[in-house]
Amino acid sequence: MRNERQHTIPFIYKLIVASVLLIGMFIIAITFGAANISAKDVWLALTTNATNDHITIIREIRLPREIAALLVGAALAVSGAVMQGVTRNPLADPGLLGLTAGANAALAITIAFIPSANYLSIMIACFIGAAIGAIMVFGISAMKKGNFSPFRIVLAGAAVSAFLYAIAEGIAIYFKISKNVSMWTSGGVIGTTWTQLQVIVPFILIGIFISLFLARQLTILSLSEEVAVGLGQKTALIKLALFMVIILLAGASVALVGNLAFVGLMIPHIVRAIVGTDYRFILPMSAIAGATFMLIADTLGRTINAPFETPVAAIVAMMGLPFFLIIVRKGGSAFS
After folding, report:
1. Residue 171, pLDDT score
2. Is 34 part of any domain?
3. Is the distance from CB of 68 to CB of 257 less than 8 angstroms?
4. pLDDT at 270
5. Rounded distance, CA 140 to CA 202, Å?
6. Which of 4, 29, 190, 203 has its CA 20 to 30 A from that of 330?
7. Is the Cβ–Cβ distance between 4 and 274 less than 8 Å?
8. Could you tell me if residue 197 is inside a domain?
9. Collapsing DSSP states into helix, strand and coil, what is residue 97?
């Protein structure tokens, strides 16, 4: 019955509705916050060269911040969807690959040994660290002959993450930089600048584009690897490309906003309940839904206890943990 309901409404209409919701949430996110900004100021900031205090706040603080939230939400959701499809594991999340742990370790090492490093250098280091974390997981998973096993990837991911988190904590304590590391790993888009966006945005857009290009192959791979081989797919090459997409998207996101768990887990499950199991539909809808979700979380973080900030990571975790427990209890079928 659920699949019948999913196909009664054409996908294009669902996509249009989701896009309208995203645009509406983006405008709300720019408008609401500690500073009392009117819709007129938002319009002037986006369409004219006029300037005043409120317009400056919009252009220099809120606009880059909300663009970052939008892109990070889309990237984490798409990378989570790809991860779940490749591993056929309903609990798969970008953190499973050791991405966050690798970025944390790279951040601690950079701050400890290159204290003069600017934010751009730190972002690049975190991106490299995320990739190294993923490579370690895949390397350990591939030590046994045969194809990558979802079970082995989960175990390797848990072991590598624990190891890299321990390195990060040890360096932070030894060099007395725990406060600096914690400020970054708390997760959020506070203080995002246009310069940071210029570095990270191309990686995210390229990753999303490649994932959409490989959506059909991912759909077949998510159903059965034997079927994919039977249809003539080069599964090893496709998996490598998709894993690179996960590293690109999740690594860029972690480098920009720090540790944000559960986004890559929640959004794909919710999207499958709306559009079905075809990744040609899941990926674009996940990008839009993830972006909308992050805008909501960031807006709540700025308004719940204004003028003080509530960490976005805390808000996302409060929403994500009950969802995670439901998925575990239902064996991955609660929203799929």
Report:
1. 93
2. yes
3. yes
4. 92
5. 30
6. 4
7. no
8. yes
9. helix
Q: Over the stretch 255-291, which tens digit does the pLDDT of each residue have?
A: 788 777 788 888 999 999 999 889 999 999 999 999 9
CATH number at residue 237: 1.10.3470.10
Q: Is residue 304 part of a domain?
A: yes
Q: What is the DSSP string of 1-42?
A: -HHHHHHHS-HHHHHHHHHHHHHHHHHHHHH-SSS---HHHH
- pLDDT score of 7: 54
* HEC secondary structure over 120-150: HHHHHHHHHHHHHHHHHHHHHHCCCCCCCCH
Residue 241's domain spans which residues? 2-313
In a domain, 326, yes or no: no
- What's the structural domain count of the chain? 1
Query: How long, in residues, is the chain?
Result: 336
Alpha-carbon distance of 186 to 261, in angstroms, equals 11
Q: What is the pLDDT of residue 1?
A: 45
- pTM given for the model: 0.87
The residue written with tokens 């973080």 in the block is 301
The single residue listed with the structure tokens 């690594």 is 251
**The tokens 């539909």 sit on which residue?**
281
CB–CB of 79/250 below 8 Å? yes
Positions in the chain short of pLDDT 50:
1-2, 4
